[in-house]
Amino acid sequence: MAQVEENTHTPAKKPPPMSILEVGGVPLPISSNEIWDKISKFEARPDDLILATYPKSGTTWMQEILDMIQNEGDVEKCKRAISLDRHPFIELTFPFKKKYDFEMALEMPSPRLLKTHLPSHLIPPSVWRQNCKIIYVARNAKDCLVSYYHYHRMTTLLPDPKSLEEFCQKFMSGEVAYGSWYDHVKGWWAAKDKHQILYLFYEDVKKNPKHEIHKVLEFLEKTLSEDVINKIIHHTSFDVMKKNPMANQSTVPSSIYDFTVSPFMRKGMPGDWKNHFTVAMNESFDKHFEKKMGETTLTFCV
């Protein structure tokens, strides 16, 4: 487990934002081509489970659900380390860690649960070669945008988002880390027809977690009792996770996450965008959304 200072909620000296490197037309928080070369050559294993998401689409939440499933509802095992250490990202690293996440992954025993925000066309080829199972979680674009905006506000890893209106324009044009939300969700939607991918929606998990957990269990070819499933639902509820220091990111140094600006786990409620969007923003966004998503079979809850 990485040694991290407790977030005292008092901002410390800020490190510089992450470096952004454009790869395959997508801006990624990667420091160099040399690092990207190592990431693209990452060796997946056949029993790896990959959790893929666009940023702020329920990654930490679904990770906790999957960890609970893999540990058959054992809460203490799921508190063995902070979420950032339990299941590393394929492509990311954090300033308080001594190693890149992919280096941590190489040292992990199988079976591994790994995370990624990469679009489908940038996933290391070994993931497809090994026919790894992948769970993708997609979230309503407007809620994703608002959550990403607040994340930008509270983390020193990413640039100051300025106003919500300015950030909305960048989000729509894909000028944010990991690029276009539209391309991301559509790319993974298309990939599900060729690979072992379970495509889930944030709003569905929120509305009926038991139903979606049963989907995951079937996909993973696992069986758990209803008591254990109910335990998982309770442990991974927003209110419980928000109080869990192994999941709520409160142990991340205050130089990285400034909780005086916003908690990492803020609201988690579908439809929060309605508290942020102006009428003009909403009209503009809807027109752009229709243009970008008009020809896909992919649909989202509003």
Structural class call reads alpha/beta
Helix content: 25-40%
Radius of gyration: 18 Å
Order of helices and strands: EEHEHHHEHEHHHEHHHHH
Q: What is the percentage of strand-forming residues? A: 5-15%
Q: Label the overall shape.
A: globular
| CATH architecture descriptor name | 3-Layer(aba) Sandwich
Extended strand count? 6
Find the CATH topology.
Rossmann fold
How many domains? The number is 1
Strand order within the widest sheet?
4-3-5-6
CATH superfamily: P-loop containing nucleotide triphosphate hydrolases
Q: Report the end-to-end length measured between terminal Cα atoms.
A: 39 Å
Largest sheet: 4 strands, parallel
Overall pLDDT metric: 89
The level 1 CATH classification is Alpha Beta
Structural write-up:
By secondary structure, this protein is α/β, with parallel strands linked by helices. It is globular. The chain has 13 helices and six strands. It has helices at residues 33-40, 59-70, 83-86, 101-107, 125-129, 141-154, 164-173, 181-191, 202-207, 209-220, 226-235, 238-242, 279-293, and strands at residues 21-23, 26-28, 49-53, 113-116, 133-138, 197-201. GO terms for molecular function: sulfotransferase activity. One of its GO terms (cellular component) is cytoplasm. This is Sulfotransferase.
